[in-house]
């Protein structure tokens, strides 16, 4: 077989694979979720995607790609968005890009929020920051209790360390990267959403973000996609 023939067959396979992907994605939102954590957050959203029977071709989940600080994460999100746009210009890229990150002790948190606001304006509202203060584990804690107590550093513990301390009252031995955190918490997700919404309203009135989380917004959005998919069957 000549080199030209081999190249031609590979090109045809790539085109067919891309056509299959486009058919899978057709008529449904195509979403990118980029997470700060390497395991906890990606595992959580992959578990959510699975239990809601959402297609992994439509709900694309990445962990951190280059750097773990919020601004690096936002930069990676824009790079991934532009890459997808170049790959499929007819689709005009992802319908939504969610960037999941924490405040905790990150020095680039405010810069990341500012850039996300600029990207949202530039790309017509497609970019959305899903932030937690001090960290993602606060969202997990809301599955078990409502609290508005502020979290700060104490001794050698960061604000997030102190959230994890409280979370261990409900999930003994919890550590970042725990594989079963989604299965442990999701049966109580309705309670978590109710607590997050109540807290969000109260913190807006108090003009503070400590503590707070927007993870419930992403969870509810993904749940809405499940409902839309069922209606289209």
Instruction: Give the termini distance in whole angstroms.
Output: 45 Å
What is the helix/strand order? HEHEHEHEHHHHEH
Number of strands: 5
- Helix/strand structural class: alpha/beta
Radius of gyration: 20 Å
Report what the structure shows.
A five-stranded mixed beta sheet has the order 2-1-3-4-5, sandwiched between helices. The protein has a single domain (27-232), classed as Rossmann fold, CATH 3.40.50. The chain has 233 residues and is an alpha/beta fold. Residues 17-21 have low confidence and may be disordered. The longest helix has 23 residues, at 3-25. The chain has helices spanning 3-25, 40-51, 70-87, 109-122, 136-141, 159-167, 181-185, 189-206, 215-232, and strands spanning 31-35, 59-62, 96-102, 127-133, 212-213. The chain starts with a helix and ends with a helix. It contains nine helices and five strands; from the N terminus they run H-E-H-E-H-E-H-E-H-H-H-H-E-H. Helix 2 links the parallel strand 1 (31-35) and strand 2 (59-62). Helix content is 53%, strand content 11%.
């Amino acid at each position: 077989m000549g080199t030209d023939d081999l190249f031609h067959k590979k090109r045809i396979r790539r085109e067919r694979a891309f056509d299959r992907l486009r058919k899978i994605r057709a008529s449904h939102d195509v979403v990118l979720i980029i997470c700060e954590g390497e395991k906890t957050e990606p595992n959580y959203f992959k578990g959510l995607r699975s239990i809601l029977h959402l297609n992994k071709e439509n709900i694309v989940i990445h962990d951190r790609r280059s750097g773990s600080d919020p601004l690096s994460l936002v930069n990676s999100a824009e790079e991934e968005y532009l890459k997808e746009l170049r790959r499929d210009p007819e689709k005009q890229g992802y319908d939504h890009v969610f960037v999941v990150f924490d405040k905790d002790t990150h020095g680039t948190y405010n810069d990341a929020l500012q850039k996300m606001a600029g990207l949202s304006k530039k790309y017509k509202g497609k970019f959305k920051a899903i932030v937690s203060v001090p960290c993602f584990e606060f969202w997990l804690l809301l599955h078990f209790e409502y609290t508005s107590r502020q979290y700060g550093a104490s001794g050698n513990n960061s604000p997030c360390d102190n959230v994890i301390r409280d979370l261990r009252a409900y999930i003994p031995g919890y550590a970042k990267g725990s594989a079963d955190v989604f299965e442990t918490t999701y049966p109580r997700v309705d309670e978590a959403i109710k607590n997050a919404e109540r807290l969000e309203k109260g913190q807006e009135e108090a003009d503070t973000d400590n503590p707070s989380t927007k993870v419930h917004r992403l969870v509810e959005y993904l749940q809405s996609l499940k409902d839309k998919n069922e209606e289209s069957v």
